[in-house]
Amino acid sequence: MSVTYLEAIREAQAKLLRDDERVFIYGEDVGGTFGGAFKATKGLAKEFPGRVLNTPISEDAMVGAAIGAAIQGMRPIVEMQFADFSSTALNQILNNAGTHYWRTNVPVPITVRLPCGGTKGSGPFHSQSMESIYAHYPGLIVMTPATVEDAYTMLIEAVTIDDPVVYCEHKYLYYHLKADKLPTEGGLSTGQARIVREGRDLTIVAYSAMLHEGLAVADEMAHEGFEIEVVDLRTVKPLDTETILASVARTGRLLCVGESFPWGGATAEVISRVTSEGFHLLDAAPQRVNAKDTPIPYHPNLWAAHRPNAKTIADKARALLRE
Amino acid sequence: MLQTAPRRKKSTVSNAAPHERFLEAFRWMLLARTLEDKLVSLYRGGLITGGVYIGRGQEAVSVACGLFLQKGDILAPLIRDQAGRSAFGEPLVDVTRTYLGSRQGPMRGRDGNIHRGRPRDNQLAMISHLGAMVSVTVGALLAKRFKREKNFVGLSCIGEGGMQTGSFHEGMNLAAVEQVPLVVVATNNRYAYSTPNEREFACHDLVDRAIGYGFEGYTIDGTDLTNCLDVIGGAVKRARAGRPPQLVVASILRLSGHGEHDDASYVTDEMKHQPFARDCLKVAEQTIVDLNLASPETLREWREDAATQVDQAIATAQKEAAPEADEEDWCAISTRRVADQIE
């Protein structure tokens, strides 16, 4: 018996619908017998009649409606069919949901689920990682779960939180990542990073699918005699600077890995904070690995080279360790 | 004295004889005009930071948007809806506190002018990105349906400029798909800022879009208060009774600039002499005089009452402290345990 990352997301939503009558799910193809493009809501429309609702292809209106419902006391979960399409809802997410509490003192408890990240053959418009855009704007919490357990507990936490949460679920992990069972208790607090592997030579900070690439590098380089510490951010915003600095204090070297585009973004933020707050801890200039600064390519050969992978991360790690 | 808060029972208005309803609407219009004239003076005197955006010429349409709503209904006003906001129950002091930057206002200096709202009291706080509030209103109505509330309606205001946004189209379509009790009142004031109708849309009549959205559509002369009350009142009633969403398109001329920074020199003389360029407040007052609905003495008392209320609201706001940057809680989220980790 095992449970996948995708099943954890489905089960978290089932639990939320079961336990809290304020919860409903709103999105393209989520309802009926279809259960979503990735089946993250499979069976839920039947189990919870009237609470898992298909919408028109109207990302802006989906989020707008969720905001209105949340102001009235509901706890909507909006499923974007792909994270990429949330760009057409940016206005509602950033300017409406993100500003509402600050402006009016009334929080907007919406959860926007973004199936993000690349899978081969998906091309420029079905592969994007949007966490850095959402983290840039005030008023939003941005979750990037990397494990089955976190996918489950963090989604429940996202809906429980009174503020808008952008929940970035990685499509590659949907089927590839499995756990023995779902957690029976809550996970770490929102905003708390986890040290997944301890080490003393180098800190790799990663999140979402890149955590697993980072762990693969740590495994591989252990054979070369390096002890690499791996930190899972879990949430991009808030960013657990304290845990990162503590890790860098132990290792003296930092490599940050993210799947989103390289200009600015989550990895740049980590490095910025470490250099300004922990410059004295560093034995070498901190480095990062991101996707390339082009649209995400369709062909598997190009796609595999576009995103960070264990090889490109390991190359960067070795160079950093030589300094 | 006309009370702006707390909200009086609306059922008395809905059932009021037409002339009583007309007179009440007129007084809200008068209050809005008096307030906005004063805000313009304060702005010109340099006492208001940012912009001032007024609803001069739109008061008849706007008051009808607020007047037929009851406790529990939703109002999503836009920038020229002072009359409707007041008729719905917005205290005058909310307006003056927001414009004058009192930290006791609903926005506490964090947002200004017409972006104010009290979402907990069903007055949604608009964002500047036009069209966005239609779907928010739809969602608020969906929530009421989920909560099994009865007999509610939502009214979302828009202009012909905002009608051209993608967000508006999505919101209208969603409203019809969800069959929520929504009224959308679109006021064509001839200009999107400075851009005239012919560069805004090319359809024969904006109300023709109603059938495309799955709405029932109506047009009104926005300078005629009776027409505004009859048609918008009827639309609210139909939406409340479970008819499809309602679109009302009003025709007026904006009798001001886009904001008070704008001299509106682009408005042609020809435009100013069109029937839709009449001042709805003057037209309504003339009706009162012609039909002898109120004596000149009563009209004078109403004017004085409006001026007194406005002066009091301004005096109150002017006495209050401005927000202080070093006392501000510079945190954009409400969840403390998470907020403490955001630097």
Q: In brief, what are we looking at here?
A:
The complex is a heterodimer of chains A (323) and B (343). By secondary structure, chain A is an alpha/beta fold.
Main traits of this protein?
heterodimer, A: 323 residues, alpha/beta, Rossmann fold, 2 domains, 7-stranded mixed beta sheet, 5-stranded mixed beta sheet, 40% helix, 17% strand, globular, B: 343 residues, 5-stranded parallel beta sheet, two-stranded antiparallel sheet, 7 strands, 43% helix, 9% strand
Question: What topology does this entry show?
Answer:
The complex is a heterodimer of chains A (323) and B (343).
Chain A: E1 3-4, H1 5-19, E2 23-27, H2 44-47, E3 52-54, H3 59-71, E4 75-79, H4 90-104, E5 111-116, H5 131-136, E6 141-143, H6 148-160, E7 165-170, H7 171-176, E8 178-179, E9 194-197, E10 202-206, H8 209-222, E11 228-232, E12 235-237, H9 241-251, E13 254-257, H10 266-278, E14 287-289, H11 300-306, H12 310-322
Parallel strand pairs in A: 2-3, 2-4, 4-5, 5-7, 6-7, 10-11, 10-13, 13-14
Antiparallel strand pairs in A: 1-8, 6-12, 9-11
Chain B: H1 11-14, H2 18-44, H3 59-67, E1 74-76, H4 82-88, H5 92-100, H6 132-146, E2 154-159, H7 166-178, E3 182-188, E4 191-192, E5 195-196, H8 209-213, E6 216-221, H9 225-240, E7 246-251, H10 269-272, H11 280-290, H12 296-319, H13 336-339
Parallel strand pairs in B: 1-2, 2-3, 3-7, 6-7
Antiparallel strand pairs in B: 4-5
Helix pairs in contact in B: 2-3, 2-4, 2-11, 2-12, 3-4, 3-9, 5-12, 6-7
Question: Could you explain the architecture of this structure?
Answer:
The complex is a heterodimer of chains A (323) and B (343). Chain A has 323 residues and is of the alpha/beta class. Chain A has 2 domains: 3-179, Thiamin diphosphate (ThDP)-binding fold, Pyr/PP domains (Rossmann fold); 194-322, Rossmann fold. Helices cover 40% and strands 17% of the residues of chain A. Chain A is built from 12 helices and 14 strands. Chain A has helices at residues 5-19, 44-47, 59-71, 90-104, 131-136, 148-160, 171-176, 209-222, 241-251, 266-278, 300-306, 310-322; strands at residues 3-4, 23-27, 52-54, 75-79, 111-116, 141-143, 165-170, 178-179, 194-197, 202-206, 228-232, 235-237, 254-257, 287-289. In chain A, the strands form 3 sheets. Chain A has a 7-stranded mixed β-sheet with strand order 3-2-4-5-7-6-12, with helices on both faces. Chain A has a 5-stranded mixed β-sheet with strand order 9-11-10-13-14, with helices on both faces. In chain A, strands 1-8 form a two-stranded antiparallel sheet. The longest helix of chain A has 15 residues, at 5-19. The termini of chain A are far apart. The mean pLDDT of chain A is 97. Chain B is α/β, with parallel strands linked by helices and 343 residues long. Chain B has one domain (11-339): Thiamin diphosphate (ThDP)-binding fold, Pyr/PP domains (Rossmann fold). In chain B, 43% of the residues lie in helices and 9% in strands. Chain B contains 13 helices and 7 strands. In chain B, strand 4 (191-192) and strand 5 (195-196) form a beta hairpin. In chain B, helix 2 crosses helix 3 (59-67) and helix 6 (132-146) runs parallel beside helix 7 (166-178). The N and C termini of chain B lie far apart (49 Å). Mean pLDDT of chain B is 94; it is low at 4-12. At the A-B interface, helix 3 and helix 4 of A face helix 6 and helix 7 of B.
